[in-house]
Amino acid sequence: MSSNIYDFSSLTGSIHSWLSGLMSSGWVIFSEMVLVGLVFLLMYALIGLFLVYLERKVCAIMQNRVGPNRVGKWGLLQTIADLIKLLLKELIPIRKSDALLFNLAPFIVIICSFLAMAALPYAKGLQAIDFNIGVFYVMAVSSLSVVGILLAGWSSNSKYSLIGAMRSGAQIVSYELSVGLSLLAIVVFTGSMQLSTIIESQANGWWIFKGHIPAFISFIIFLIASTAEINRGPFDLAEAESELTAGFHTEYSGIKFAFFFLAEYMNMFIVAALGATVFLGGWMPFHVGNWEGFNLIMDYIPSVVWFFSKTFFLILIIMWFKWTFPRLRIDQLLTLEWKYLLPISLLNIVVIAFIVLMGWHF
Amino acid sequence: MSEEIIKDVIVGENEDYIINMGPQHPSTHGVLRLEVCLKGETVKYLTPHVGYIHRGIEKMCEANTYQQLIHLTDRMDYLSAHMNNEAVCMIVEDALQVEVPERVKYIRTILDELNRLASHQLWWCAFGMDLGALTSFFYGLRDREHILDIFEESFGSRLLHSFVMPGGLMHDVHPNFQKRIKDFIKYFRTKLPEYDQLLTGNVIFQNRAKGIGMMSRETAIGFGVTGPSGRGSNFSCDVRKIAPYGAYDKVQFNEILETGCDVFARYKVRMAEMWESLSILEQLVDNIPEGDFTAKMKPIIKLPAGEYFRRVETARGELAVYVVSDGNKSPYRMKFRTPNFSNLFVMNEIASGYKIADLIAISGSLDLVIPDIDR
Amino acid sequence: MLNKEELSEIIRALVPEVVVPEGTQLPEFIVPAENYFTLVEKLKSDPKLSFNYLISQTAVDFQTNMTVVCHLESTNFRYLVVVKVVLTDRENPAIDSLVALYPTAEYLEREIFDLFGIRFNNHPNLKRLFLEDNYGYPLRKDFRDEINIIER
After folding, report:
1. Is C50 within the bounds of a domain?
2. Do A265 and A149 belong to one domain?
3. Residue C143: inside a domain, yes or no?
4. How far A328 CA sits from the closest chain B CA (Å)?
5. Which residue has the higher pLDDT, B158 or B13?
6. What is the total count of domains within chain C?
7. Helix (H/G/I), strand (E/B), else coil: B114
8. pLDDT, tens digit, 9 for 90 and up, residues B325-358
9. CA-CA distances (angstroms) from residue A345 to A218, A348, B196?
10. How many Cβ atoms sit within 10 Å of the Cβ of residue A173?
């Protein structure tokens, strides 16, 4: 089944054997690490910049505007120009701020999103590290960024920042539960936390279709809770432009601000990729049960295209949220989580466990 | 800076968590500073600080002639520029007992309503922004553009068109005027339901707007909160109904009153007023009588010695002008009772006890224009 | 709806000290400073009048005196009257505050204090509203500012 999907492990294997012919095994590991690091750095920057561009275009379309259209074809180079501007801007030191924490915070935030990127399967055989607790790892690492946000808010010595950071703390800690429980639903179905196993288990259909209504419910909960977890509208209370000017990154400028900005978009990418992997089959093409011919045709579309199109589909949904809804209030936000999403997902888990126990799923 | 301020605000001896919202803040709609005392996310009390753009318009009026000072009134409530001009013109006409031609009255009333529409559209944009719905901003501005184009065609300026002069208008309107207004009415009748679809019916929006910023009718009257903000508290204060001026006595329209007293009630009043304005425009635009665009006026206007008082309804409430004349060509004393001045200071009363996010919604629902407060 | 004469009769009956000048646009009542608060209180509480809406409160500097002008409206009956107080002491003008009756008076009176230097007794927070502490009182006719105000 799905044998004719191109497996990237043959490519990586040939690189490995070529390197092994050149140098000793210690150096091979070292150079491979450098190579993977460089690839991730490049990919991070490219995806981040593209997401910023995409966001601006999407919001422009929603708002009857044109969006960036001056720098490069269709304004494609606009974000690169913006990045150069941000790199050249002055880093304004804040009086009475805690200098160490103030400078550390953006790095914590960006490192967390880097770490999460490592465990994502981008295509068949293209995964930097395949943990046996992949889902857990990605969740744990991506939610660590709240530490960076709290530090940023505390060390800025600004009252707006502090309120923003406290909001963010309350929000991420609460919504982490729902994200975890909704992902747990599929983990229960699959019986594994390893991302590659989860994808393999979807070879005869994605979990959102296979898992009856409970899987769909957990998908919706995942979408809501992860939007809240990455501080995006309508849950962007931590930044809340109209209330707290810019929330926890009010006092940041230049490249440090760019770090926060980029990390926000990369977190969006990470949750979308995780959602796509767990619920929509990741790089697995669209397969229907045992329709061999149909599945074969679907396999001709490269797995990397499947992964990125699903991810960007989810990203577009998240963007659509942001540009349509008004912002929630902090008490409404916590009510939504603790009074609605959490009980529903707990009940959902029980139902799924029952389904799995009875073997009713496909 | 006085000792008192240092003690109260900066040192914070009473251990209150005070944040200064403004003078540079995205949601204060201008250079207003709200000194907000918080307990967690809840507002304990707030004190508005004004005066950042105090220009002394009342003092400047004392050195200018009546034709000149009309241009100063534009700069108070720049979104109701036409109504401000009209108030001064009517007080001069009252004092000189000039009968303005019917045509002028009709055109002035049409401009009033167009200006009110443009102002309410901008309020709607900004209100959505305040609540975090960023898309509403562009919907509103898209439609406001049509009104500003009408203004530009007839008067050459889009925002501050000192088009009304004592006795009439500066010149006649553009020949396209009626046609364009009719086109606009037809266009905006299709676009106004979109506003409801985007914001009014939204669950998040309703949860945000309902039940906050409660202002009872007594509070509204006591603080002199007029205009749509007052009418959201069932305070009947529409000067167009109480003391009709212009052509308002010739048209059928309802004074919109809501009994909700909260932010959502004020929102609904403004939305309904947009429909009402469209219907007023529709009744007037086809019936503009022919005639002169101005009455005969002397080149130098000298008001007879005495005191004059006149009220008009701007987009934000009741603007009252009080003139003391000593018979010279410039007023002895000119006082503007501006609607936003009274509307702002009710903030402490209606925002205490709610969250910061509600404070933004409440200040958005009062639709403040800061230059109007500072004058 | 009462007309101007009937209104004057009622108000004269409330406070006999009021003077009603002739030939004004609106019904006008000049009251001594010591009766000012009592009159306004009665205007507000009298069920036949119930002037519950303070439209505007301001002052005029007539060089010989300071006049505080209040425009009051009754939202039930739609009467509009002007209450005036003439303060002959231009150096230290003082008058009772209306804050206890109309909350909006707090800031209107602060504005008057700011621009005219008229003090209000029993005002809870009489501080300058717009201007700096040592600016002077710009709407007084004897105010001079060589830099910012051009004389014509």
Report:
1. yes
2. yes
3. no
4. 6
5. B158
6. 1
7. helix
8. 888 888 888 888 888 888 888 888 888 888 888 8
9. 7, 5, 33
10. 13
Name all domains of chain B by residue range, CATH numbers in brackets: 3-49 (no CATH), 57-374 (1.10.645.10)
CATH number (domain holding residue C35): 3.30.460.80
What is d(CA B40, CA A136) in angstroms, rounded to the nearest whole number? 33
Helix axes B102-130, B263-285, angle to 10 degrees: 150
Instruction: Encode pLDDT of A207-266 as tens digits.
Output: 777 777 888 888 899 988 888 888 887 888 877 777 777 778 888 888 888 888 888 888
Residue B297 has which token pair?
């006026």
The answer to whether A330 contacts B357, with C-beta atoms less than 8 Å apart, is: yes
Number of domains in chain A: 2
- What is the pLDDT at residue A120? 84
Q: Report pLDDT digits (tens) over A4-44.
A: 677 777 887 888 888 888 888 888 888 888 888 888 888 88
Q: At which of A44, A68, A88 does a domain end?
A: A88
Tell me the average pLDDT across B95-122: 88
pLDDT average, residue stretch A146-165: 85
Helix (H, G, I), strand (E, B) or coil at A302: coil
How big is chain C, counted in residues? 152
C126 occurs within a structural domain: no
Q: What would the pLDDT profile of B180-195 be if each residue is shown by its tens digit?
A: 888 899 998 998 888 8
Across the interface, do B56 and C138 touch by the CB < 8 Å criterion? Answer: yes
In a domain, A2, yes or no: no
Considering only residues A273 and A9, tell me which one the structure prediction assigns the higher pLDDT: A273
Report the pLDDT value the prediction gives residue B80, as an integer from 0 to 100: 87
Is C107's CB within 8 Å of B322's CB? no
Contact B51 C58 (CB under 8 A): no
Q: Which of residues 123-182 of A touch B (CB under 8 A)?
A: 159-160, 163, 167
What are the residues whose beta carbons fall under 8 Å from the beta carbon of B307, sequence distance 6 or more? Answer: B322, B323, B324, B325, C24, C25, C82
Is A301 in the same domain as A270? Answer: yes
DSSP result, C47-92:
TTT---EEEEEEEEE-SS-EEEEEEEE-TTT--EEEEEEEE--SSS
Half-sphere exposure of C30 (CA within 13 A, CB side): 9
Q: Which amino acid is at B297?
A: M
Nearest CA-CA partner of A44 in A209, A352, A266: A266
Q: What is the rounded average pLDDT of the residues B115-142? A: 87
The position carrying tokens 């989860």 is A198
Q: What are the structure tokens assigned to A298, written together?
A: 């679907």
B chain contacts of residue C138, beta-carbon cutoff 8 Å: 56, 59
- C147 is a domain residue: no
For residue A2, pLDDT beyond 70: no
